[in-house]
From TrEMBL:
Protein family per UniProt: Belongs to the peptidase M24B family.
Residues in Creatinase N-terminal domain copies: 9-146
Gene3D superfamilies with a match to the protein in the record: Creatinase/methionine aminopeptidase superfamily, Creatinase/prolidase N-terminal domain
Name of the protein described by the UniProt record: Aminopeptidase P family protein
Coiled-coil regions listed: none
GO terms for cellular component: cytoplasm
Residues spanning the signal sequence: none
Domain Peptidase M24: 317-534
């Protein structure tokens, strides 16, 4: 019998844990590749609790316990959402990083308890830290043979059976053979025999392969073992491999059944094998150790070269952005007409934007679920509209739309904040938006020595907000892939020492990031201005050393009704006018009629 309530599902999980002699269990949002976005088959936390965010976890106690015996763990991005979606009668709400599932279990589980976890969903660092913490309390961390949620989730979807397909070298700018040779050179320099590539976007990049197994991210469920001789083994379900892919991979890549992956790890006895603890689950480490491999923890060698875009990828991004910019501009013109009528809702706006993007035959998918946020919802940086949360966009209010597209030649990510008439925005709204704009411009125009980290640049985007006594709680910029993940490491622009990795990574020529400062007034409105930027060499006369700067890639008009020109310096006004002249030059040839007339008006000098 199917269980239709989260209470029944929680009860079924507790009974299953009791059968296995476990006193508790930890449920993350994760898959066997530690992906940011996971397939439906891996949405265990959502099935159990109802939580629909992209980052969070739960801990559940079974048997005798005090209180609710279960807790949800989310960071500040999901404080409101988790309370809307997860029953407070079943779960305590816990804030990360103030606490964690391991800390909560150490404090609430009885002495001598056995806490289960799925070693194929957690990283090795998490497992070792939890094990050490539990040992102080006489608690044992137990890797389960099979996930107990899968036992009680009777209608669990199967993993995607979509075909994996070649990604043309003309888009990648490098062949897979060239990339594998680079990895092989690294292995030989370090004295390693092989490395296990587990991150789905790293596998896709290394083999110039794409898939459709995860919503919004064109990857295929697979692993690679790359060897020092330049060969590689791809572990993937056989039904996903087409003749075209086999031909594309060539003889140097041996295609093997995904079911062979675990036995292969166990057969590497005596081999020195590098594995990245940030991207590989604990189960991989345990399998290699059990098989007698000499295990070395080292960074995924695909991550940095993947982040440094080839000239072909850079041009592909420009082409994709131009195409995407025209679609977003058509949407904004349409929105300016329809939203003031008071009949358009958030879901309708998101659907219309998808329709405009879909007019291009090059569109493959959206790059994430569109954040279509009206009024107070715009104050939630990671708001996700659904049938339950959907509201009508109120006239005389701010509307924020954060969206992106996946194209063969690039991945886009853009946020525009607009005023929905009639009337005028408040003085506070204009002040806050102008401060966000000033920070955006400051970062766009930044020039800095080669080797500077993203963390060192973050304050540029915040300085004008700080001067007004306000700030925002998310990072300023994340890396972006090339027809891959919209959130790509290792680079990041964020406050140093924050919760997100990558702030200390030096920025390199060819890296693409977002530039997205914001401001959020809880329950009222939110503002974010986001363009993508390419790290380029800066042309400075008589510079002492190499300097870098940014090339803006995203071209869509900004809402002039939310700008106080008197707050802008001549340098900032020049940036605004130059930017909008480029917007007009790039987009005008793609538009006509009312869309072109609207563009011309929006791109007039400030």
């Amino acid at each position: 019998m199917l269980m239709h309530t989260h209470e029944a599902r929680l009860d079924a999980l507790r009974k299953e844990l009791a059968k296995r002699g476990l006193n508790g269990f930890v449920i993350p949002i994760s898959d066997e590749h530690m992906s940011e976005y996971v397939g439906e088959y891996a949405q265990r936390l959502a099935w159990l609790t109802g939580f629909g965010g992209s980052a969070g976890s739960a801990a559940v106690l079974a048997g005798e316990f005090s209180g609710k015996g279960a807790a949800m763990f989310t960071d500040g991005r999901y404080t409101v959402q988790v309370r809307d979606q997860v029953s407070g009668e079943l779960y305590d709400y816990e804030d990360v990083p103030a606490t964690s599932p391991a800390k909560w279990l150490a404090a609430n589980a009885p002495q001598g308890a056995k806490i289960g976890y799925d070693a194929w969903l957690h990283g090795i660092d998490w497992a070792e830290d939890a094990e050490a913490l539990f040992a102080k309390r006489g608690i044992t961390l137990v890797p389960v043979d099979s996930n107990p949620i899968d036992t009680v989730w009777q209608d669990r979807p199967a993993p995607s059976a979509a075909l994996a397909v070649p990604h043309d070298d003309k888009f990648a700018g490098r062949s897979s053979a060239d990339k594998r040779a680079e990895i092989a050179d690294w292995l030989k320099r370090e004295g390693y025999d092989a490395t296990v590539i587990t991150a789905l976007d790293s596998v896709a990049w290394l083999l110039n392969m794409r898939g459709a197994d995860v919503a919004n991210t064109p990857v295929a469920l697979s692993y690679v073992v790359a060897h020092a001789d330049g060969t590689a083994e791809l572990f993937i379900a056989p039904e996903k491999v087409s003749p075209e892919l086999s031909q594309h991979l060539g003889n140097a890549v041996k295609v093997r059944d995904r079911a062979d992956f675990l036995p292969t790890l166990g057969s590497l006895s005596g081999k020195t094998v590098a594995v990245d603890p940030k991207h590989a689950v604990a189960g991989i480490f345990y399998a290699l150790q059990a098989g007698g491999a000499k295990l070395v923890r080292d960074a995924d060698p695909a991550v940095l070269p993947k982040a440094i875009k080839t000239p072909a990828e850079q041009q592909g991004h420009r082409d994709a952005q131009a195409r995407d910019g025209a679609a977003v501009t058509r949407f904004l013109r349409w929105l300016s007409v329809e939203a003031p009528k008071g009949e358009l809702d958030e879901l309708g706006a998101a659907a219309k934007l998808r329709e405009f993007r879909g007019q291009s035959a090059a569109l493959r998918d959206t790059s994430f679920d569109t954040i279509s946020a009206a009024a107070g919802h715009a104050a939630l940086p990671h708001y996700k509209v659904d049938e339950d949360s959907n509201i009508t966009i109120p006239p005389s209010s701010i509307f924020l739309c954060d969206s992106g597209g996946q194209y063969d030649d690039g991945t886009t990510d853009i946020t525009r904040t607009v005023w929905v008439g009639p009337g005028q925005p408040s003085a506070e709204m204009i002040d806050r938006n102008t401060r966000v704009l000033k920070g955006h411009i400051e970062l766009a125009l930044a020039v800095f020595p080669d080797g500077t980290s993203g963390g060192a640049l973050d304050a540029l985007a915040r300085m004008h907000l700080w001067a007004g006594g306000v700030d925002y709680g998310h990072g300023t910029g994340h890396g972006v892939g090339s027809y891959l993940s919209v959130h790509e490491g290792p680079q990041r622009i964020s406050k140093p020492g924050g919760a997100f990795p990558g702030t200390e990574t030096p920025l390199r020529e060819g890296m693409i990031l977002s530039n997205e400062p914001g401001y959020y007034k809880a329950g009222e409105y939110g503002i974010r201005i986001e363009n993508l930027i390419l790290t380029v060499a800066a042309d400075i006369a008589q510079s002492e050393g190499q300097y870098l700067g940014f090339e803006t890639l995203t071209f869509v008009p900004l809402d002039r009704r939310l700008v106080d020109k008197t707050m802008l310096t001549p340098r900032e006004i020049a940036w605004w006018n130059d930017y909008h002249a480029q917007v007009r030059a790039i987009l005008a040839p793609q538009l006509d009629g009312d869309d072109l007339a609207w563009l011309e008006a929006e791109c007039a000098p400030l």
